[in-house]
Amino acid sequence: MTTDYTPMWRELGLDITAHNTLLSVLGDAYSDIYLTQTNRPEGMAYFNFVMSEVHGLRIKELMEARNQGRKVIGCYCTFVPEEITLAAEAIHVGLCSGADFAMDEVEKYLPRNTCALIKSSMGFKLAKVCPYLECADMVVGENTCDGKKKAYETLGTMMDNLYVMDLPQMKSPEGKALLKAEFIRYKETVETLTGKTIDVAALKKGVTIANDKRKAMARLAALRHHRPLPISGLDALLINQVFFYDDPARFTASLNALCEELETRIAQEISVVPEGTPRILIAGCPMALPNWKLPAIIENSGAIIVSEESCVGERGCRNLVDDTADDLDGLMDALVDRYLAIDCAIFTPNTERIDHIEAMAKAAQADGVIQYTLNFCQPYAMETLPIEKSLETSGLPTLRIETDYSQEDMGQLQTRVEAFVELLK
Ligand code: BJ8
To answer: Is residue 1 part of a domain?
Structure first.
């Protein structure tokens, strides 16, 4: 960042000293992990730029939009329908929860044995270091796992703009009815917040913007199925993370431009790794920005990630909303259908997730699957066992990793991943 954004951060009420510490840690990690990669596509320059300005220029854009009367809505889960936010010309952003911050403070409010993602959300609020959170007009939490559900009760005492969405746990007709009722409630809340009525035309516009973004993500995912492999898993993860922050139309255009370059690379047989490099599919908990720990270890161990089965990845992006209905009720049904297909581990039963992982591994020509679970995440930990069994029956080697955001287990993880990569060679 070349501009001094301190006055803007101060206006947002950030703790400038703590925020500077966060930016410096983030900048160092980004330089070490990302900028040391070789043979990156030129189109990654855009995503480097977004990262360098993620707390600067993008926040300035949000503040300017707010000054023009638009609203900013921050969300913790991929279940919050972006289409409705966009239909009201509001701005939809994901909220950071990929780094430890103010852990001593956090543990005054949450038990120690809470997953790192939840602790991180709380830490960013307590330490006042997330400009997205501080400039949001409304923050949306959701009843997914028990940890999140209970943490929002506490988080709600720290902010006056937290809205909690109820979510079903089963994909039954009753579950579907609950989701529809909750999406209608969200639509009405967004209408009140923005002062805009969401009609058919507006909702269709929101659907188109979100569908275009997801189509570009699907294009990227398909290009990674190729040998030669035109992009690293770390770069693809970064794109998946930027997906949650950037202006959607600009993101889609930049990603499509990158995909064109990747197509040329494939035609010219330009690969980011030598032939024979083991290809890994990573499956499990979401890797929110700036959680790059395990992918960096994998790609520094002589393997390459070709697909992410994660909400910061294909689980969060797959499936488009059918926009053919010509009334609001039909469009809301189409939204519900699209979102209810997300196979988050909080659902029971959730066997389609196994089928998806198998299909993804096959499509991406993966040699092995690493299941990634955050410590104390019961839903994803529980699902690792049936998934492992099923993949092994299909002849795909798997490795289970449970970790958090600390650096303490780096050596141990490196050893385990290296042994797994050797096995795949
Ligand atoms: S739709 S995956 S973004 S809930 S890691 S907080 S499950 S204890 S994140 Fe998620 Fe929405 Fe589902 Fe996707 Fe709980 Fe597990 Fe922590 Fe988790």
So the answer is: no
